[in-house]
Structure formats: structure tokens, C-alpha cells
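lol ok so funny story. i was supposed to be doing the assay writeup but got distracted and ended up predicting the structure for this chain instead. priorities right. anyway since i did it might as well share w the group, maybe its usefull for someone
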Amino acid sequence: MDVSQEKKLKTSELLGYSAYSVFSMLGSITWMWRSMYYALIGMNMSLLSSALMIARLTDLVVATLVGGIIEKVRLKIGGGGKYRPWLFIFMFVITFGIAITFTDFVPGNDTVHFVVVTIGALCVTISMSFIGAAQFGIVPQMAGASAVDRTRITVWNYRIMTVGTILTSATAAYMLTWFGTIFPSPMNYTVMSVGFSGFYIVGAVILRRVAKPYDLPQENAPGSAGAPQVKVADMVKAVTTNSQLLIYLLASMLSMIGMLINMNIVIYFWQLIIPYTHGIPASDAFPGLYTIASTLTQVVGFVFSMIAPEVGKRLGKDKAMWVGLLGAAISSILNFFFGAGFWAIFVGINMIMSFAAALYAGFGINYALDCGEYGLWKTGQDHRLVIMSMNNLPMKIAGIIGGFSMYALAAIGFDSLAVQAASAQGVLPAFIDDQFVTNFMLLLMGIPAACNLIAALLMIFAYKIKDEDARMYAAENQARMEAAAAGGASEA
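and the output, tada:
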């Protein structure tokens, strides 16, 4: 039997691998209330934005180096191995970062607030980069060259994450309210963040336990000769000369830029656009219609997570991605023209968009892993982790670019002070008119449509790794490494 088609991993192992994803989502529940918390304790919002931007830019640099650091450094703490020590270290760093972020050490002191937010955000974002790279690297350790098991891991992980999304969105506001009945504000944020950050430790412990049989300490690894002497120049070359990786990263980045622009401003669709176009009170649209739409979309998204990845498997990874991106582009175009006029159409089209995304989202890190296998097969140098760690870059770059969406809103006439004043009076702000609605929908749906369309074209015409190629690369690479390990063991 072709090794690439073997199915070896147990369901318990797939669940164990996915545990970190769902527990980390629970752990991040309070993270979404950052702006609300610092507004509550009176921090200047421009200082908060500056602190978060410092953290994002620093993390962008770290994200480019993390794969090389893990490749070059071997630690013995946390049970040893290539990845488990990093999980051990950063599960504590991330919980510390969240806990201090929601602690008002010196009330009313913006200098202290700025320092605390910066340190907390750095702890969280850098931890995510290291933990994410380790989680990526464990996939080929557990699955070997089996394309079937590699896909099973990422599809299970994706499905479990959709459950986590439903849990967090359905409980976050209620949990914060409940803590508020027990502890005075802002202490309720502090207690909740300390408690929920522990979920990161729970998830990392489970992931480390599942990885233990596969992530062996270096001295116990078959044919091991110690930590690899990897040159930084070789790592840089492995990324910059891998054309397929660069195409995939660019397509991913474009898609994520569109997604984050949409996410950053969609709340105003429900608070401002729907009340204006439907002639209803703002309170009926938000939280009323918004809650209904959000819940429906999440539940349908879970159903799609069970169906769409199976369709994606039949299409193949490369085709599933461009079909999904093209579907997202078409859906965004339809919502640009029709979504503002009737909220149910907007929600229905968004559901179609979620199905399109689910076609390829279940493959997860397998795209970057295929690019890594391609690089190893082509050059004989194993920089798969370095290449897989680049999978974090599109989201981090998109996060920085998406952060400028508020400036784009201001450019089309949005005024937050006018929104606050109008809200206090129970009316819509004066700047809302037909032209503003058109311009807003262009930002909300037009830009994501263009981003996804360009990304789809890149995957159609420039990305060349088919599923059969990826299986061949993985099988031949594993055979070479096993032969080299056997030769090294016999010489020893």
C-alpha cells in the first residue's frame, strides 16, 4: 500500500491534537474585551492603539524567526523533544500576558497602562507564534507521510474550532455579566481573565501528552546526531526561493486582509446601515437582528464544517482553495449590491460565503506543509518547520493592514463622536445617507471581493502543487530520511 494513503491515527489522538485549539479559544474570551476594559478604566484610546501596534510589529518580526529558532535550539525542559518544550514555556507566558493585561496596577496612570498593555500584548502574540509553530510541526510528526492522516488532523481541528467559536460567542457576554454580579467593575474583568487564561494551560498539556510518543527527545530520535546545524542564510533562502510557498502566502494574505477589514467594521452594518435602510430603531437591529444573524451563521457554519471539507477532499487542496476564494469573492459582490437592502439576504449570502471558506479551511497547515515537502524534495534540505511557521505571517500582516480600516471609515464620513451623541438620543447620526451606505458597503464587501478574486486567480494560474504531487513529495522525503537515519544508526 502507498504509505501516503495509510490511516493510522486514533480518534483520541485527533481529538487530543484539536484540544489546544478549542481550549485556547475559551482562554481568549476576555481578550475580545480589551478595548472595553481600557475605556472603562479611562485609558487614552490612542495610547492603547499605539501599544497594540508595537506588539503587532514586534510579533511580525518574531513570526519570521520562530521556525528557525525552534529548528536551531533544543531544550530539555517540559519533557524534551523538538516542540513540547516550547509548548511548556509559552503556555505560562500567554496566561501571564492575559492576566496582567486585565489588571489595573495603578488606577488613572496612563504610563503604567501603556507599559502593561504593551508587555501583555507581547506575551500573548509572541506566545501564539511559538505555540502555533509547534502545533504545526507536530502534524507531520504524528501523521508521517500519510496525506490521509495529515488531512484528518487538520479537518478535525477545524471542526473542533467551529464548536469553540459557537461556545465563545454564545457565552462571552453572559460570562462577563455573571462575573460582574460577583465582583465590582473592573475587577470582574481581572478575575475572569485570570480564570479563563488557564484554559491555555489545559489545552497545551493535552497537546503535549498526545505529541509525546511522536516528539521524542533528540537523543532518543532514531539516527539522531544532535540538534541540526542550520544556517540562517539557508533558512532565508528556503523561504524566498520557494515559489509555491510565496504564491500561497500572498493568496492567503489577500484573503485575510479582506476578512479582517470586514470583521473590523461589520458591527456598524448592524448599528447604522440596517436601521437606516430598513427604517427600524437601532436597538431592533443591534443587538436584536445581529444576535439572530450571528447565531444562525455560527450554527450553519458548524454544519458546513462537517460537509464542506469532504467536498474539498474530492476537489483536492489546490482546487478547493481557489473555488472557495472565488465563491467568497462572488458572495461579497452579491452582498455589495443586495445585502444592505434586506438583512436576511445579507445573512444568507454570508452563509454561502462560510461554505466556500470551509471548502479549504479544513486543510489548514497542509498547504504550507506541502510547500515544505516540495522544498525538501527539490533541495534535499529540511526546512519544513521554517516554511510552515510562515503560515502565521499572512494573518499578522493582514491584522496590521486591517487595523487601518477605521481610517478608511473616517475618509467616507464616519464620525464616532456623532455616533455616540446620536445613540444617546436614540437616533441615527446625520452623516448616514444613501451615499454613505454605498461607500460603506464598498469597504465592507467590495474590498474583500477584490482581495479574494485576486487570491483565487493566483491559486488558479500560479500555484502548481496538486494533491498527487504532494503525496509523492512526502513519501519520497520520508523514504530518504529513513534511509539516512538507518545509515547513521549502522555507523554508530
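The longest helix spans residues 147-182. The radius of gyration is 23 Å.
back to the writeup now i swear
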